[in-house]
C-alpha cells in the first residue's frame, strides 16, 4: 500500500518536521527554555573564544583546539535551534526539501568535525601527560594548524561524499519526518527508489566515523596508564585534572550519540532518541564552555579580564 502511494506521488518539494509533537499548551514555556539555552550557548562559546584570544596564558594547543570546538558548537546549534523554536510553538514546521538537505549537510559535517577535534584534543592531552618534555616540539603551531584544518576539510568532504549518493535518489514522499531536524536515515525513508546502496555506504561510513572515537579511547587508555605510574597522589591528581574537563565533554557527546544511532528508532524508543538527540545537539554545545570555564582558573581569570576590557575602553574614551 505504501509503495503504491509513493509511486503515484510526484517529487516532493517540502518536508514537514513533526518535532516533539503538539505541545501548544506548554509551547511558550518550551520556547522560553530553548531560547534561553540557545542564547547562553552562543554567549558562552563566544566569550570562551574571546577569553582565549585576549589572554596570552591561554595561547596553548589545548585552547587553540577549544576555540575551534566552540566555533563548531555555535555552527551546528545555530543550524538547529531557530527551527526547533518554531516547532515547539506550532507543533511542527514545514521547510523546503532543499533547506532540509542543506541542514542535513551542515549538521552532519559539523558533528563530524567535532568528532575529529575531540580526538585531536585527547591526543594533545596524551602528549602533554605522557610526553611532557617533547610536547612543545610534537605539538607546535604548524602542527596545530594542520590538525585543525584537516578536521574542518575532512568533516565536510566526508559528509559531502555521502550526500552525493543521496542526491541520486528520487524523493516522492511521504512528506513527513518524525524528528526535530533533518537527519540522514529519516530523510532516506522518503525516497521511492532503491536505497540499498546508499544505506550500505552510510553504514560503512559510520564505522569509518568511529575511528575518532577509537582514537579518543586509545589516547585515554594511554593517559590512564601513565597517570597510574605516577608515584605521588598529588601528581596523579594534577595529571588527571588537566584532562578531566575534556573527558566530561567526550563522555556526554559520544554517550548520547551512541544511544541515538545504535538503538532502533521504532515505538517508544523514537521519542527517547529525540531527547538524546537534544543532548548532543543543544546541551553539549552549552556544556563545553561551562565545563572549561568552571573547572579552569586560567579561563576564569581571562573571562574576568575580558569583561573588564570594554569598560576600560569606554573610560579611556571619556
UniProtKB/TrEMBL annotation:
Cited SUPFAM superfamilies: Family A G protein-coupled receptor-like (SSF81321)
InterPro entries cross-referenced by the UniProt entry: GPCR_Rhodpsn, GPCR_Rhodpsn_7TM, Olfact_rcpt, Olfactory_GPCR1
Sorted UniProt keywords: Cell membrane, Disulfide bond, G-protein coupled receptor, Glycoprotein, Membrane, Olfaction, Receptor, Sensory transduction, Transducer, Transmembrane, Transmembrane helix
GO cellular component: a single term: plasma membrane
Subcellular location: Cell membrane
Primary location recorded for the protein, binned into one broad class: membrane
Membrane topology of the entry: Multi-pass membrane protein
Source taxon at top rank: Eukaryota
Matches recorded under Gene3D superfamilies: Rhodopsin 7-helix transmembrane proteins
Membrane-spanning residues: 29-51, 63-82, 102-123, 144-167, 213-231, 243-263, 275-294
Protein name: Olfactory receptor
UniProt organism field: Chrysochloris asiatica (Cape golden mole)
Amino acid at each position: 500500500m505504501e509503495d503504491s502511494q509513493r509511486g503515484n506521488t510526484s517529487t516532493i518539494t517540502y518536508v514537514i518536521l513533526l518535532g516533539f509533537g503538539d505541545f501548544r499548551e506548554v509551547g511558550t514555556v518550551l520556547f522560553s527554555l530553548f531560547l534561553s539555552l540557545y542564547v547562553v550557548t552562543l554567549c558562552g562559546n563566544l566569550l570562551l573564544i574571546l577569553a582565549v584570544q585576549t589572554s596570552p596564558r591561554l595561547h596553548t594547543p589545548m585552547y587553540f583546539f577549544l576555540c575551534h570546538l566552540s566555533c563548531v558548537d555555535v555552527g551546528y546549534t545555530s543550524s538547529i535551534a531557530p527551527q526547533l523554536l518554531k516547532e515547539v510553538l506550532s507543533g511542527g514546521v514545514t521547510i523546503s526539501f532543499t533547506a532540509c538537505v542543506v541542514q542535513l549537510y551542515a549538521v552532519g559535517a559539523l558533528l563530524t568535525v567535532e568528532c575529529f577535534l575531540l580526538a585531536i584534543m585527547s591526543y594533545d592531552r596524551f602528549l602533554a601527560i605522557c610526553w611532557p618534555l617533547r610536547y612543545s616540539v610534537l605539538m607546535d603551531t604548524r602542527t596545530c594548524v594542520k590538525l585543525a584544518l584537516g578536521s574542518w576539510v575532512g568533516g565536510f568532504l566526508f559528509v559531502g561524499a555521502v550526500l552525493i549518493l543521496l542526491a541520486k535518489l528520487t524523493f516522492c514522499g511521504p512528506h513527513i519526518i518524525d524528528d526535530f531536524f533533518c537527519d540522514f536515515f529519516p530523510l532516506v525513508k522518503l525516497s521511492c527508489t532503491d536505497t540499498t546502496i546508499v544505506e550500505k555506504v552510510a553504514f560503512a561510513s559510520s564505522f569509518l566515523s568511529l575511528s575518532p572515537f577509537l582514537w579518543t579511547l586509545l589516547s585515554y587508555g594511554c593517559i590512564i596508564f601513565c597517570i597510574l605510574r605516577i608515584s605521588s597522589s598529588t601528581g596523579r591528581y594534577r595529571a588527571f585534572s588537566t584532562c578531566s574537563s575534556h573527558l566530561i565533554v567526550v563522555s556526554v557527546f559520544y554517550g548520547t550519540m551512541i544511544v541515538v544511532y545504535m538503538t532502533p528508532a521504532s515505538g517508544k524508543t523514537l521519542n527517547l532518541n529525540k531527547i538524546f538527540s537534544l543532548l548532543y545537539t543543544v546541551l553539549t554545545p552549552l556544556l563545553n564552555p561551562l565545563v572549561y570555564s568552571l573547572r579552569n582558573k586560567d579561563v576564569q581569570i581571562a573571562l574576568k579580564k575580558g569583561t573588564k576590557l570594554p569598560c576600560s575602553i569606554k573610560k579611556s574614551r571619556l
